[in-house]
Amino acid sequence: MTIEAIEKEIIEEFELFGDDWEGKYEHLIDLGKSLPLIKEELKTEENIIKGCQSRVWLNSELINGKMVYTADADAIITKGMVAILVRVLSNQKPEDIVRAELKFVDVIGLKEHLSPTRANGLVSMINKMKTEALAFVN
Amino acid sequence: MNDLNNIREQFPILNQKINGYDLVYFDNGATSQKPLTVIESISNYYKHSNSNIHRGVHTLSRTATELFEKSRKTIAAHFNVQNEQQIIFTAGTTDSINLVANGLAKKYLKAGDEIILSTYEHHSNILPWQLWAKENGGKLKIIPLLEDQSIDYTSFEKLISDKTKLIAITQVSNTLGLITDLEKVKTLTQKNNIPILLDGAQSAPHMAIDLQKLNVDFFVCSAHKMYGPTGMGMLYLSEKWLKELPVSKPGGGTIKTVTFEKTEYAEGALRFEPGTPHIAGAIGFAAAIDFINEVGIDTLFKHEHELVQYAQQKMSEIPQVIIYGKSNHKAGVISFNVIGQHPFDVGTLLDKYGIAVRTGHHCTQPLMQCLNIQGTIRISFAIYNTTQEIDFFIEKLKKVITMLS
């Protein structure tokens, strides 16, 4: 699936909740719980993204020309956001990742989590995902 | 409080919806909201009296100077300080502590000297001393906490030696709300005649402080945590230190005479207030003090104490909640965690219900390391908070716990 197709899928998933923010957050929390964990040995100092409040671990590898991300976070709401981002960007071509605008986050009403003042490490995580993909773009 | 509704009317910011809910502002430990009298005092100053102070011959400058110096008197009176020159206007608690640390480092502190701090100090009462110690071969000694997170006075006594040059300690822990027993501290330090720096950032907003009676060497606090403006605070110097603390931040306004060879500094507060000060801030600070005194500091303490008791009681009925520093001797602050949940998640969801709390390490990372936790959720009260707000908070906290588990 392309990045856009996955984004569309996520938007539809969240549209079901309409204005019910509690339902939306419960879904986000569930997504967090289902996040395939990063291997313990990959939770290294190098892979940690320090937010002021919650920590995110991100590992990336290039497998068959596609970036594969695994990640974790210590706060569940952050983890839910991490799960969504991994779902959208993992198994994609590096050049597509670099180009991705991730506008869907605004559409599903979770943009506040990507605000730089949020101190949850997500903005830095996206930057890291893109920077690491960029290294493989010719 | 008989007239709580009246009190809330003086804080227009409280009357708003956040995410569709009435704002519940429980982040007063970070900064309190400002009453209209404070807001208006600042706006009136700029509307009618703005001018640079001291040394001006014109009328406006005299008016501004009078307002500024009258503010110093109001603040001095509030803390029962006879000589208002002992009140130095600063940018806040952090600035005040740095002023003391940099001054002491010039003359009074030597290599091999020791400074004693408590485990629950705010970073701003650690870092200036740590920097001094690192650059000058000094040493910091840390008072441990007991099981209930209160200060271990027995261990404290053992840390004191003839090398101890200062005790820098907070009167109220910003994270736990626990109140330091200053009488005990003084009993321990008196025989060695060790100066005390008392951090009043979290005590001054909540309780009566008589600096004459406390008889400490240095006292610091911030206006913005006590209904005043940000960027404003004070440093109280005892008579001895007002004369002896070396100037570490020289500049315009601090002097009597200047030649390229040498400078004779002014006496009194001015020697520590270089540059054009935050005049509106000082006026706003005094207006905040007037507000506190109109309510009555004892009424304020009693009201907040009741809120803490009420909230702690309700919170302890929730099995997943752990309260830190669970003592009754507390001022305005409760720190807690929900078992198995990250403070960030709890804070994020409470915000969705319009409840403003603080989460994280609260600038007390060494305390977090001592408690072996990443952070806590902190609620902190002011005069305008109500038991109804606590009821709403408890209801939503329970809901948040369900959502997260």
Could you give a short description of this structure?
The complex is a heterodimer of chains A (138) and B (405). Chain A is of the alpha+beta class and 138 residues long.
Give the key terms.
heterodimer; A: 138 residues; alpha+beta; Sufe protein. Chain: A; 14% strand; B: 405 residues; alpha/beta; Aspartate Aminotransferase, domain 2; seven-stranded mixed beta sheet; four-stranded antiparallel beta sheet; 14 helices; 40% helix
Structural summary, described in words:
The complex is a heterodimer of chains A (138) and B (405). Chain A is an alpha+beta fold and 138 residues long. Chain A is built from 6 helices and 3 strands; from the N terminus they run ααβββαααα. Chain A has one domain: Sufe protein. Chain: A. In chain A, helix 1 packs across helix 3 (76-89) and helix 3 (76-89) packs parallel to helix 6 (122-134). In chain A, 46% of the residues lie in helices and 14% in strands. Chain A has a 3-stranded antiparallel sheet with strand order 1-2-3, covered by helices on one side. Chain B has 405 residues and is α/β, with parallel strands linked by helices. In chain B, the strands form 5 sheets. Chain B has a 7-stranded mixed sheet, with helices on both faces. Helix content of chain B is 40%, strand content 17%. In chain B, helix 5 links the parallel strand 5 (114-118) and strand 6. Chain B folds into 2 domains: 4-30 and 297-404, Aspartate Aminotransferase, domain 1 (Alpha-Beta Complex); 39-294, Type I PLP-dependent aspartate aminotransferase-like (Major domain) (Aspartate Aminotransferase, domain 2), CATH 3.40.640. Chain B has helices spanning 4-9, 36-49, 59-78, 93-107, 127-136, 153-159, 182-190, 211-214, 239-244, 279-295, 297-316, 343-352, 365-371, 387-404; strands spanning 17-18, 21-22, 24-25, 87-90, 114-118, 139-143, 164-170, 196-199, 218-222, 233-237, 255-258, 263-265, 321-324, 333-338, 355-356, 358-360, 376-380. Chain B is built from 14 helices and 17 strands. Chain B is globular and about 70 Å long. At the A-B interface, helix 2 and helix 3 of A face helix 12 of B.
